[in-house]
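Incident log entry.

Two folding requests arrived from the same account within the same minute. Monitoring flagged them as a possible duplicate submission, but the sequences differ. Recording both here for audit purposes.

Request one:
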Amino acid sequence: MRKTTFSFMVLLCGALVSPVDAATQAEEVLKAIVKIRALIPAEARTAAVLGTEREGHGIVIDSKGHILTAGYLIIESERIEVTQADGQKVQAAFVGYDHATGFGILRAEGLLNGEPMKLGSALDLKEGAPVIVAGHGGLEAAIGARVVARREFTGYWEYILDQAIYIAPAYAQFAGAALIGSEGQLLGIGSLFTQLAVPGLGLLPCNVFIPIDLLNPILDDLISTGRSRQPARPWLGINAEETHRRVFITRITAGGPAEEAGLQADDLILTVNGKPVSGLSDFYRKVWETGSAGAEITLGILKGVEVREISLRTGDRNRFLLMKPRKTL
């Protein structure tokens, strides 16, 4: 028996449970994890960046066949196939996506085997806590890991995740993977691979997981309407990076608000509505505090050696992607 498999069973089922009983209980929990394969039209707006064939994992979260995953796996999909723990495949329909958290929901168009995984809470999950990271494939696809940090994560695609869960060792097939606690409950969803600077150790390869607690306030909305009812954040349509607290545009989304306003890659962002920008997260927060999607803002931009002010009307990323959620039962 693999060491990671045994450690998983001990963590999940307790040291006093026999190996046979522990293996059985662990396998039952892991049956809720499915494999997702999504096909995206070549003309989709996200196809150039995320590809037209995407694979990852998802977790069955209720008896109606709703599956929770990383939203980028299924956004703009035209066909989704789900592979269950026993290898059976069923078709699934896109249900919803929340840009603010990164969660995506789909629904299997057929009966699923196994019990849904119970949702837990990561609010008290501290640095150093033991956890399990698992993908589709049963015990062989589960590893023991540790929480190495709970801190803000800022993404180049206009994204901030408060209290993100950083896990090590890194799990290779992280997209949509399950973060499982000691009671077999779902604590988070795998989002990405990154490296974390650790004093004395250098850069530590790890994964970022989205805390499950962010799902409860929006789950009903995602299932019923395809998106959160909370006001959409102002969206610019850029990718940006930070160097020495300075924010540079690295990519412009074709047809987005930034392109229409004349922003370009390599522009340096100095201010938002006259307020100085200090770092990427500060920049995003200053944009978002201007109101909801559609708000007009003025950016101070350094283009080469010329400082310019550019006004633009922000957009709604959901509408831009023209997502059309299907009604669910």
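Request two (distinct sequence, not a duplicate):
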Amino acid sequence: MIALAPANISAQLMACVLLVEDEPNIASIIVFKLKREGHEVRWESSALAVPAAAEAIQPDLILLDSSLPDGDAFALLTTLVAKHPVVMIKPTQLARLVAELVPATAGHP
């Protein structure tokens, strides 16, 4: 017997992503792009809200801004990495990422 992949296999491969970014303009671009690719995204702008959010949704990946105004992102990284895959993004990397994503979002709400 041959097992066939479901017709919509890509939906099964999408990730649940927790984005931690305090700048709404930057976050909206990243959220738009990830959702357009089919990922489930939860955005948190406060470092204080992140542990509870991560526990609630059990993300496949956390994208963590390294410069959060209301908490120490490196201490948060230490806490999160014990249970979740985390990618920490420095402001210079974030600016480059957003510059790459902006053309993809042009003309979209």
